[in-house]
Specification:
Structural class: mainly alpha
Helix content: 55-70%
Number of strands: 3
Radius of gyration: 22 Å
Number of domains: 2
Low-confidence stretches: none
Strand content: under 5%
Amino acid sequence: MSSKFTVINSTDEDKNKEMDRICRIARLNELWERQYLSALERVCTGRIGKISEVPQDELAKIGLAGIKYICSMRDVTRENIKLGIDEGKTLAGEQVRFTVIDSIFTILGCLTLRNFVTAFPIDKRYDGEKWECIDYFSTMKALSKMNWDKPIGRDELSELLWDYDNSDLRHAYIEFTTAMSAIYKAQTGKGIMEKFFEDRGVPTYTIDKGIGIMKNNQTGDIVKTQKVSHIQVVK
């Protein structure tokens, strides 16, 4: 296989298409945010009682819009990073993100499993056994042990999400655990995964891309990284 390729400069049309793509991502985020807040407001206005007493169809609408909002917000952040205009994450921002997603998960925990699966269909992936990851079959196996007509429960939802193959839910759960880890690190000086590996004797490293080194967080040993370029400009 040849390692050579030709670099093609983008045209004005390409740049316009890219800008349109970015604008669509931003608009989609705004739409899902409005949808989520509107659905939440409709349910909360003039209602007294527990969230679990809200009709299942209303809970599903709020939960679906909330998850879509979180995923679209992640997409906006990614584009901002690419454009170099991301303001970076703050502890206050991570706390807000954690609280918002946790409240959405609380709502989803009030759904029956049957309505949950309807709102968030299982991804049609069937090769999980080959790649040793979750797929449609492993998800259905996990669901077969549950009561489909009983509310899932908040704690049980966290367990379910580990076994449930749906890309939107997976991305939202990653955002949730990332925010949780950031809060934990602010309190202890270490992220959740760093603490997990440390407790099991697995070394972790901090990378300084500026000077090209990796530092062992346990021993302090420094390893110089090697830069490998896979790009060759063909003239």
